[in-house]
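User: quick one, sequence for these tokens?
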């Protein structure tokens, strides 16, 4: 994958991010590759949609993010709009999405440029709504106090006028999740949840989360949801503090639509996409969340050890009683050739650690 143009997303509050950006720019200068900073946060300049950012940057074919997973999601938003691959440089605390440390950024760019890296596809979500999403005046500043500038509501994608009743399609892709959350502390969100067109249950809750497998280790996990392999496609539905006996997560198939309707006497509901406020729903409004056609393209320098990363990031330890009963190897990979019926399955590489 020879690199033709790079889009840089930099965590502006971190000095090490600026140093890593300088390393990327040096690499670009040596290889004659243009580099443009994207999604720059300035008080005097509003943020733009992913399509506008991609166009202003000359449609990069590689987006490099310098920060943590939050910075990665900023870059992924732009990459999804133009089909670019994303390389995440890890400067954060959790780092499920980022791939390399700052010391290895130039080596990583060499691997991508010389075709020695792989690209891993991940499912994203998009949505249709009963009306275009809007953020009422005054609410944005309240909800974003102390944070960076807000994104605009997603624009409406062109659609067929004959699609009456199916809602307006939004030009947006969620890498992690779409969250429907109560606006007022004293008013629960009352939401009817539909799966594949049929009412599943009506919830009174602080929020409900529709997550991708990639996002299963984010807000959904914090709310008690399962860890789901990012190598599969699914929609993970997790209620947050529901006032009902059934408080379990539900994992839906990727071809099933998750519908959320705000009940008549509910409080208003905020819609956040990958942690960014993108709209507010009134009673009677509805949104359908479903698998997007566009997939996120993650640059990987080697086989992904997702479960090892889960163990490391969450600092998992073995049960004391189990540890006392004997030691176990960290990997299982026999040295003999893989049998034919196992060759299409995932295993650690030979000699892996």
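Assistant:
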């Amino acid at each position: 994958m020879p690199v033709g143009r790079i889009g840089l997303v930099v965590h502006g509050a971190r000095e090490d991010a600026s140093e890593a950006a300088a390393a990327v720019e040096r690499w670009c200068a040596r290889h004659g590759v243009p580099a443009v900073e994207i999604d720059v946060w300035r008080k005097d300049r509003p943020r733009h949609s992913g399509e506008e950012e991609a166009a202003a940057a000359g449609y990069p074919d590689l987006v490099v993010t310098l920060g943590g997973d939050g910075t990665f999601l900023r870059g992924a938003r732009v990459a999804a709009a133009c089909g670019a691959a994303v390389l995440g440089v890890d400067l954060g605390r959790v780092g499920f999405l980022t791939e390399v440390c700052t010391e290895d950024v130039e080596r990583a760019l060499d691997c991508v440029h010389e075709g020695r890296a792989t690209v891993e596809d991940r499912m994203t979500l998009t949505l249709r709504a009963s009306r275009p999403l809007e953020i009422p005046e005054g609410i944005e500043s309240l909800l974003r106090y102390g944070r960076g500038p807000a994104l605009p509501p997603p624009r409406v994608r062109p659609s067929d006028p004959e699609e009456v009743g199916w809602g307006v399609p939004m030009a947006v892709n969620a890498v992690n999740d779409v969250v429907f959350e109560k606006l007022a502390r004293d008013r629960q969100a009352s939401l009817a949840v539909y799966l594949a067109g049929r009412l599943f249950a009506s919830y009174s809750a602080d929020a409900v989360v529709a997550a991708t497998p990639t996002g299963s280790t984010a807000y959904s996990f914090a709310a008690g949801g399962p860890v789901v392999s990012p190598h599969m496609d699914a929609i993970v539905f997790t209620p947050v503090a529901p006032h009902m006996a059934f408080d379990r997560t539900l994992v839906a198939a990727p071809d099933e639509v998750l519908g959320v309707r705000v009940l008549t006497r509910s409080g208003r509901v905020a819609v956040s996409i990958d942690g960014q406020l993108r709209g507010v729903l009134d009673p009677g409004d509805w949104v359908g969340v479903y698998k997007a056609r566009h997939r996120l393209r993650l640059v990987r320098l080697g086989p992904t050890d997702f479960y090892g990363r889960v163990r490391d990031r969450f600092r998992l330890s073995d049960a004391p009683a189990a540890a006392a009963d004997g030691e176990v190897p960290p990997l299982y990979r026999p040295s003999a050739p893989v049998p034919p019926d196992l060759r299409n399955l995932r295993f650690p590489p030979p000699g892996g650690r």
